[in-house]
Amino acid sequence: MPGTNRLTRLDDYFCPPDLSVRDALARLNATEHLFQLVIDPQRRLLGTLTDGDVRRALLRGVSLDAPVEESVHRDMLVGRAGEEERNQTHLETDDRLVTFLPVLDGDGVVVEVLLRGTQSAGIDRALVMAGGFGKRLGERTRETPKPLLPVGGRPILDHVLTNLEDSGVRVSHVSVHYHGDQIRRYVEQRENRMTVEIVEEEEPLGTAGALGQIGDHDRSPILVINGDVITNVDFAALHEFHVRHSLDATVGVARYDIDVPFGVVRYGPDGLLAGIDEKPRISNFIAAGVYYLSPEFAALVPEGRSMDMPELLNQGREIGLRTGLFPIHEYWTDVGRPADLEAAEDNYESAK
User: Fold this and answer.
1) Domain boundary residue among 94, 116, 138?
2) CA dihedral 92, 37, 52, 230 (to 10 degrees)
3) Same structural domain for residues 82 and 168?
4) From the CA atom positions of the chain, what is the Rg in Å?
5) Of the N and C termini of the chain, which has fewer Cβ atoms inside 10 Å?
């Protein structure tokens, strides 16, 4: 089959349904082709698992400690042994953007996996928002911009840029305002592995306004990341998620838990007690300062106008652009307060 590879050594790609999502994800990330086949003891296929399946399950409230069978994709496309032409057609033309095709025998046992020969190009360009004042950090940012504060012996900005470089990003813009000259000098002296261009904000432009300063929004999506976010998020997985779901914007979200130190009272419309939950934990997804925007989305930001990301996302939704959520299960922290900076210093090395 031209343009197709065959995978016949499958032991590393098999996992049982009772394995935890966390352990299945570790197996997935250790393989070359980044998927798992969930099988029964007879090697009959129960479902497939990709990074995107895990993140969709997290949005449904599935825990990383739950059995992987709660996260698998069961309506998967499969091939049949001996039906070479049909299998090839599925792999090349299916509108679900299939990148691998399990091939089953008559009993539903996996005999091989066909791999699509070409993959999407990945993230081409990024914008790092590094112009903020960092006021919540007090004296720490009086003379030093927040992106240049050290974590693990390196500036926060270096962590951000290194992650982008490791993900294959070719061009990164860095927007600056407060102590922008220091950031410019740092970028010029750094041994960059991609093109890094400084975008000057003469006046603060908010969390999205710098998009209007760089233009060139007619060729590829752009990754926007806050300059105070340290994360090991898989940007390649973010790109694949964005493409697979035909999204115009993909918003990285992180789970944030609040432990209420009191009993929370529930009551009905009649004012009568419905129950008391003792010291509950409330979980929500929060915007994680990571956004992947289509050219159509980025072009909504006018040059020279201050705009925050919620305004941009709401504007896109109003005109029919599609925005999806990408849960971040990897290490993530926003270094906005002194306690965050101290925790990042303590935890970053162990979370790598």
Assistant:
1) 116
2) -130
3) no
4) 23
5) C
Distances (CA, A) of 332 to 106, 140, 160: 45, 21, 11
Lookup: tokens for 141: 């940012």
Residue 36 has pLDDT above 70, yes or no: yes
Q: How far apart are CA 88 and CA 261, in angstroms?
A: 58
The percentage of the chain sitting over the pLDDT mark of 90, rounded to a whole number, equals 73
Amino acid at 212: G
* Beta bridge mates, 100: 115
Q: Is the backbone of residue 199 left (phi > 0), alpha (psi -120 to 50) or beta?
A: beta
The number of distinct structural domains making up the chain is 2
One-letter amino acid for residue 54 of the chain:
V
Domain boundary among 116, 143, 173: 116
Torsion of Cα atoms, 108 then 77 then 90 then 107, to 10°: 10
Average pLDDT in the chain: 90
268-297: pLDDT as tens digits = 999 999 999 999 999 999 999 999 999 999
Q: CA-CA distance, 138 to 146, in Å (whole number)?
A: 10
Question: In CATH, what number is assigned to the domain containing residue 100?
Answer: 3.10.580.10
